[in-house]
Design brief:
It is a single chain. By secondary structure, this protein is an alpha/beta fold. It is about 35% helix and about 20% strand. The strands form two sheets. Strands 1-2-3-4-5-6-7-8 form an eight-stranded mixed sheet. Helix 9 (about 260-270) packs across helix 10. Bound molecules: iron/sulfur cluster (SF4).
Length: about 300
């Protein structure tokens, strides 16, 4: 499959089939914590590549094979709203499947009415907020120079008024950049102004684009989460709620877009870490995935190109 990956298990969204509308990595931001590696060159130019007809043909073939998922998710190797026809994916999911649709977006183009209009076709939309002003936005996400923090937040507020579905928010905590309580409080106040249904505070659990980015300690992440109110919870590694059968295909699908730690894989497949290792090592030798250490943790990720 060129554009589909998974379904991958997630605690919040169940089994999610990913649809990659931005391959190879194409993004408006170059977040320091990005688990997909550095953005070669940030852009805000929206395109119709890959052809949406090809993407939908692949999705229809997948559906025809009898497979199913809880969510069909626009996400992948960059920012899906850079695709001018990303809304067609949600129209197709609604008209032709029993699945729900999910948009995972960095939110940077929500200042555009046409992006908000098409995002509103999804059942669930998740956007991000890691900063409280233009300077902190630039420090955390290294955005395309044309992007204005205030315009994005204004876009979120307008979208909240237009959108009847569930709006989720991700806040990524980078120690030394946005982890002071007064900084988190300022982010929380902005979040409150557009009332997300759920807020997830994440920190680096996978190798980041900037190797200087470290993980926020669990106790501190817990304390910061409390500042965001009752809708907030801590993220982190996401084992599935339901046991997932350990097969080569399931494992390769899970690590095909970004690295997953040995610990998280063991939790997902309900195995011990040594059992998981025994399964992973032959796949690494066959170059179906790559095993590597980062910050003293073993990860499995996509094979080297
Ligand atoms: S984390 Fe998401 S928004 Fe940030 S650079 Fe990576 S793909 Fe783009």
């Amino acid at each position: 499959m060129r554009y589909l990956f998974g379904p991958v298990p997630s605690r919040r969204y169940g089994r999610s089939l990913g649809v990659d509308l931005a391959v190879p990595k194409t993004c408006t931001l170059d977040c320091r914590f990005c688990q997909l590696g550095p953005t070669p060159e940030t852009t805000v130019t929206r395109t119709d590549r890959p052809p949406i007809a090809e993407v939908l043909a692949e999705l229809r073939a997948w559906l025809a094979s009898g497979q199913t998922a809880d969510f069909i998710t626009a996400c992948g190797s960059g920012e899906p709203t850079l695709h001018t026809h990303f809304g067609d994916l949600f129209r197709c999911v609604r008209a032709e499947t029993a699945c729900r649709s999910l948009l995972l977006s960095n939110g940077s183009l929500f200042s555009l009415p046409e992006v908000r209009r098409d995002a509103a076709l999804a059942d669930v939309v998740k956007v991000s907020l890691h900063a409280w002003d233009q300077a902190s936005f630039e420090r955390v996400t290294r955005p395309h120079p044309s992007l204005r923090f205030d315009a994005i937040i204004a876009g979120y507020r307008t979208f909240r008024q237009q959108f009847a579905g569930r709006l989720d928010l991700e806040v990524f905590i980078v120690p030394g950049v946005n982890d002071a309580p007064d900084q988190a409080q300022r982010i929380a106040a902005i979040a409150q102004s557009f009332s997300p249904d759920a807020i997830t505070l994440n920190t680096a659990v996978r190798p980041p684009a900037d190797s200087g980015v470290t993980a926020c300690p669990p106790e501190q992440l817990h304390a910061l989460t409390a500042l965001f109110g009752p809708a907030a919870h801590e993220g982190g590694a996401e084992p599935a709620d339901a046991p997932v059968e350990l097969t080569e295909a399931a494992l390769i699908a899970l690590v095909s877009r970004h690295p997953v730690s040995l610990h998280a894989l063991a939790a997902t497949f309900r195995k011990t870490e040594p059992e998981m290792r025994v399964f992973l090592e032959p796949l690494a030798r066959r170059r179906l995935l790559r095993l590597f250490d980062s910050q003293s943790t073993l990860f499995a990720g996509p094979p080297a190109p």
